What we know:
The chain is an alpha+beta fold. It has 2 domains: 1-44; 54-165, no CATH class. 44% of the residues lie in helices and 14% in strands. It has a 4-stranded antiparallel sheet with strand order 1-2-3-4, with helices on one face. Strand 2 and strand 3 (139-146) form a beta hairpin.
Amino acid sequence: xxxxxxxxxxxxxxxxxxxxxxxxxxxxxxxxxxxxxxxxxxxxxxxxxxxxxxxxxxxxxxxxxxxxxxxxxxxxxxxxxxxxxxxxxxxxxxxxxxxxxxxxxxxxxxxxxxxxxxxxxxxxxxxxxxxxxxxxxxxxxxxxxxxxxxxxxxxxxxxxxxxxxxx
Length: 167
């Protein structure tokens, strides 16, 4: 069996070293291209400020419009024993201001009409969707029951989903 000389050993290791260096250079180039693609995407889509503003506006819609409307629907159901046929039945006894029924991001619904999609739940429905706000560019806002629906006894929760995941 022939023994390798130190020169053969250095030649093999030299090739391995250059292969590793080439791989690392390619990896750095790929990382730089990915970062520049991400930055270009942020700049053309309004950047992170646009996304933060969208989430902030959707959260305001949920906090100041969807949840108070869900609470009014719950008061209606507690008082009458059934859910309203339509969302306008809440006015003026269970919901004082009609502006609560309008999403701040809605520019298409005529004045005086609700911005939200109302799904009248049936008693005993499980995880039923009560209200939806489709007026945010990248998010779907929902008020959904947690567990079974019973007039006046249902826990409603606010959900924010990316539009690509919304059914």
